[in-house]
């Protein structure tokens, strides 16, 4: 893989309804006085070549982070795959990293390890596994998956795991289970914000 072929666009997925957090815009919920999406952006930005934000509400607030903000093509909250699809249509690079806006403790070597696994395996997608749990919303995939993902969504598919099960995938082991915590409640934001 050449240097150009290994360039990465990351998309921060902040387009959900956040039902478990009372419907607030989760990416803008505060942890230690800062929006949750800020923590994720700071973890991921040094590891990638381009950053995009998938959001469906409060677009002007997300634009203040200084990266392109992409609403889903459909207004009915079709889930994280719709955000990934939109990012793939706009991405400047051949590899796409997807991370949710509620995972503020992602590893500093996430992208490097996923990229090596993707290259060595020849897989379509690399997914982290930690403590026996597969973290499907965090993944590194190839841009050429775009037509298949488009077809999957057009047929009514929504589940990330179902789409990924149709691909050549490699699971990449990580040790720090806290690194993949996703914060779903106001209590978790308060309790884990001091980690």
From TrEMBL:
<comment type="subunit">
    <text>Monomer.</text>
</comment>
<dbReference type="GO" id="GO:1902758">
    <property type="term" value="P:bis(molybdopterin guanine dinucleotide)molybdenum biosynthetic process"/>
</dbReference>
<dbReference type="InterPro" id="IPR029044">
    <property type="entry name" value="Nucleotide-diphossugar_trans"/>
</dbReference>
<feature type="binding site">
    <location>
        <begin position="13"/>
        <end position="15"/>
    </location>
    <ligand>
        <name>GTP</name>
    </ligand>
</feature>
<feature type="binding site">
    <location>
        <position position="102"/>
    </location>
    <ligand>
        <name>GTP</name>
    </ligand>
</feature>
<keyword id="KW-0479">Metal-binding</keyword>
<keyword id="KW-0342">GTP-binding</keyword>
<feature type="binding site">
    <location>
        <position position="26"/>
    </location>
    <ligand>
        <name>GTP</name>
    </ligand>
</feature>
<feature type="binding site">
    <location>
        <position position="102"/>
    </location>
    <ligand>
        <name>Mg(2+)</name>
    </ligand>
</feature>
<dbReference type="Pfam" id="PF12804">
    <property type="entry name" value="NTP_transf_3"/>
</dbReference>
<keyword id="KW-0547">Nucleotide-binding</keyword>
<keyword id="KW-0808">Transferase</keyword>
<dbReference type="GO" id="GO:0005525">
    <property type="term" value="F:GTP binding"/>
</dbReference>
<comment type="function">
    <text>Transfers a GMP moiety from GTP to Mo-molybdopterin (Mo-MPT) cofactor (Moco or molybdenum cofactor) to form Mo-molybdopterin guanine dinucleotide (Mo-MGD) cofactor.</text>
</comment>
<dbReference type="GO" id="GO:0061603">
    <property type="term" value="F:molybdenum cofactor guanylyltransferase activity"/>
</dbReference>
<keyword id="KW-0460">Magnesium</keyword>
<keyword id="KW-0963">Cytoplasm</keyword>
<dbReference type="GO" id="GO:0005737">
    <property type="term" value="C:cytoplasm"/>
</dbReference>
<dbReference type="InterPro" id="IPR025877">
    <property type="entry name" value="MobA-like_NTP_Trfase"/>
</dbReference>
<comment type="similarity">
    <text>Belongs to the MobA family.</text>
</comment>
<feature type="domain" description="MobA-like NTP transferase">
    <location>
        <begin position="10"/>
        <end position="162"/>
    </location>
</feature>
<keyword id="KW-0501">Molybdenum cofactor biosynthesis</keyword>
<protein>
    <recommendedName>
        <fullName>Molybdenum cofactor guanylyltransferase</fullName>
        <ecNumber>2.7.7.77</ecNumber>
    </recommendedName>
</protein>
<dbReference type="InterPro" id="IPR013482">
    <property type="entry name" value="Molybde_CF_guanTrfase"/>
</dbReference>
<feature type="binding site">
    <location>
        <position position="72"/>
    </location>
    <ligand>
        <name>GTP</name>
    </ligand>
</feature>
<dbReference type="GO" id="GO:0046872">
    <property type="term" value="F:metal ion binding"/>
</dbReference>
